[in-house]
Specification:
By secondary structure, the protein is α/β, with parallel strands linked by helices. The longest helix is centred in the first third of the chain and has 23 residues. The chain has two domains: 277 residues, Aldehyde Dehydrogenase, Chain A, domain 1; 191 residues, Aldehyde Dehydrogenase, Chain A, domain 2 (3-Layer(aba) Sandwich). The N and C termini lie far apart (73 Å). Helix content is 39%, strand content 21%. The strands form seven sheets. The chain has a seven-stranded mixed sheet, sandwiched between helices.
Amino acid sequence: MSKTDLTYWQQQAKSLTIEGRAFINGDYVDAQNKETFACISPIDGKPLAEIALCAEAEANQAVTCARATFEHGDWSKAAPVKRKAIMLKFADLIEQHGDELALLETLDMGKPISDALNVDIPGAVRSIRWSAEAIDKIYDEVAPTSENELGLITREAVGVVAAIVPWNFPLVMACWKLGPALSAGNSVILKPSEKSPLTAIKLAALAKSAGIPDGVFNVLPGFGHQVGKVLALHKDIDTLVFTGSTGIAKQLMIYAGESNMKRVWTEAGGKSPNIVFADAPNLAEAANAAAGAICFNQGEVCTAGSRLLVEASIKDEFIALVKTAMQHWRPGNPLDPNTNVGAIVDQIQHERVLSYIEKGKEQKASLCCGGNKAQPVAGGFYIEPTMFSEVDNNMAIAADEIFGSVLSVISFENIAEAINIANDTPYGLAAGIWTSDLSKAHQMAKAVRAGSVWVNQWDGGDMTAPFGGFKQSGNGRDKSLHAFDKYTELKATWIKL
């Protein structure tokens, strides 16, 4: 039996021991009132574990420990090279436990095991390693001064960081934040989504094994309106970083203003345009990318290419190509390594996606394919990847972030119209442009209001490129050296000689 067999992963799942407690000051602990909530697998709707329901008491305890360890300095004042060595060991341990973490991710949020193994685990490891390697290579500055003065510009760890991460890429999104935050010397409290808390809880043990001191890294599972709100309002949290919906991001910024004006960095929603011109270098390749841009991870991706803008002269031809490409994306058992579309994360999200499909029909968009429930595993939450054509940018399916495999095709006549449609959204996270005309590519890339623009591809970039959005898609950047700006303060020291 091998990892390429469904049976292998089913047996691994049966023998898996799942930790559901919070992690505070170096130990797994129950909630003080012993309350828990059920972790349900979207694969079959069955319970996986009982998870500690953290609230104010646990948040206060974690913040107190995080502050104490930060002030003590075992981590915050350690030489960057020392923190680097420990963080590299942390990355090694994530890699060594990759199969277990991938299985937890799949069971918890429904993504295909092949994606968890080949995308999420390597991405998490790469993020931690990259940030660790960077930390002893970020230099401070000396200002250009007169002969009798010395101006120093130095970076310091900001202090206690609360990181609230989403349910769609729980491990990777956590590591995008943990890498620079911990490497810079901060203490971190990680609050995973209640929909997918399992890998975050497991990470805590690996961090301790790597040598990260007790109290530096804490994990508080629970609900956003309980423990998340407490962290956002807590006056001893210095920085709050968040990935999730725009609505919640706005509320967190309000909480920060109501408390201690903590720094708030958000990566929020998206409704990304994927713009295909008639002179695209390869229409078949563009169609395959368009299908993957909406079907990957069940469409539960902030950068999903959910608005497909197609030049009118090739609209019918291109829709036919995308429809063919989408036939290769079919819901299946997420534990089957051959599956490329897994389960929707839970019943609430399942119903939300289906409701938008009905809205598309009601608003007279033309259903090209999909749109139905699927049931590869009894009791699970599955939906066929769906495409609508004849969509107006004001329709609900084109305006709202659905977070499911629902593709809206919108036609345009010229560059100006494409730009207007692409920017006619409160979001500005990502965009794709397909053209053989270099001037047109540059013109579009400059005009589209998005934090990431990909030309003749979808989802380009690596750890060297910053990730984040314009407008209501958030502020600040994950990945690259720019991520360290969120987790450090700049200090100017001016000395008269």
